[in-house]
Every structure is written in C-alpha cells, then in structure tokens.
Amino acid sequence: MSVIGSAAILLLAGTAVFAEERPENVAPKVNVSGVNRGKPVVALEEVKQNAQERMKAVRVEAQTRVTALKEKAAERVADIQDKAKQQMAERLTKQFGNINDRWTDRFMQLLDRYDAVTKKIQDRADIAAGKGRDVTIATAAIQSAQAAIESARAAVTAQAAKAYVLDTSAVAVTTSTTTPSGQVELMKNLRTSFQNLHKTLFKDLFALRDGPMKDARKAVQSALQTLGKIPGVDEGTATSAAATSAQ
After folding, report:
1. For the purposes of burial, counting CB atoms within 10 Å of the CB of 189, is it exposed (0-12), middle (13-18) or buried (19 or more)?
2. C-alpha span between 215 and 209 (Å, rounded)
3. Can you give the pTM of this predicted structure?
4. Domain locations in the chain as residue ranges
C-alpha cells in the first residue's frame, strides 16, 4: 500500500484512502522498437540538460515561495495531540510535493524519449529526400511533433513549479486544540484540507498527462506513421519504422 494510503487510514479514519497512482503506470508512451537507438546527438543532450536545470530551478523557487506557508502548516500539525496521527500528518504534508516531483520527472523522461524518436524520424526523412522522395508532408509532421514536445516541456516545467502545501486558513478551529472538542474539530478540518489538496494535485497531473503529454505522443506517432507512407522510404536501410501504440 502506498505511503499516502497507509497514512490516510490512520490519520483520516472513516474517509476514502488517498490513492497514489504511479506515473509509470499512467503516463502515455510511444513504442519505438523499430527506430534505431543510436548514441544521442549533442543537441538532444543539451535539450535534456537544459530542461533538467530549469526543472531544478523552478522547484527551488517554488519551495522558497511557500516557506512561510510550510512553517504554518507544521505549526498546525504540531497541535495534534495524538503522536501517531501527528507523525502521519507530517508525512502527508511532504508526500504531495514528492508525488509531483516524481510525475514531472517521469514526464520529462518521456519527452526526452520523444525527442530522440523525432530525431531518428528526421534522419530517415533526410535520407529519403536525398533519394529524391517527396518528404513535404513528413517534414510538416516532424515540425508539428517538435512543437508539441516543446509545448509539453513548458507545461511540465510549469507543473513542477507548483507547490502543494496544506492550507492552514482552512484548518482554523473555534475552540482550543488542548480540549477534546478542539482536537475533533482540528482533525476534521485537517481531513478536509488533505482531501482537497489531494484532489487538486491529481487534477493538475491528470490534466497534464491527458493534455500536453498526450498531444506530444500523438504528434510523434503521426510523424512516424507519415514517414512510413513515403514510397520506398525503407529501401537500403537495415531497420524499418514500426507503428506506434499507446501502452
């Protein structure tokens, strides 16, 4: 069971368990078994490195931006008298950010892969053009794929810049937290806040997965399929392009 799942059972008894879906199980993929996977060119490595550096920078900026909010959240969680529940709440407050990091890292890895595939498609198109084939449509499809990948990179970076911090204003209590009734009210408000934070996080992640990421994957598929329609594109080559499919 996931960390969020087990923590929610103990901390949020009586509510639905928070499901931590793993990005590798839900992220769109492209089957590139038929594309030659040679050593990445320098340009692709530079794109990858720049994207990683930008992701790191926006995450640092995000954490700096919400430092005060995180401190307030820690203070509110410290009001929980039950130590076991307090520890679980502390783990939950950190887990949301970790999930966002894992998903955005995985999305960037997929985009690196899409970039490499697109480069191979371009190489094949160049060879076909050198043989006098008409690659106009394939070139347009390749450009569309490149644009979709860059758009997705921007969207993933924007998602990485988001911080998911407990909203302490929604956890305010009307009675002292040192009293039993105050503890009941505190736990009720924390439960609601954690649930809302969970919903917001996965709403954002699913929108990214089913929007820009899916668009990039489909654009690469289209480019590869368009390449395959060029008459004689595989003549004189050792490998042939394979049809892509979502996994």
Report:
1. middle
2. 9
3. 0.73
4. 3-228
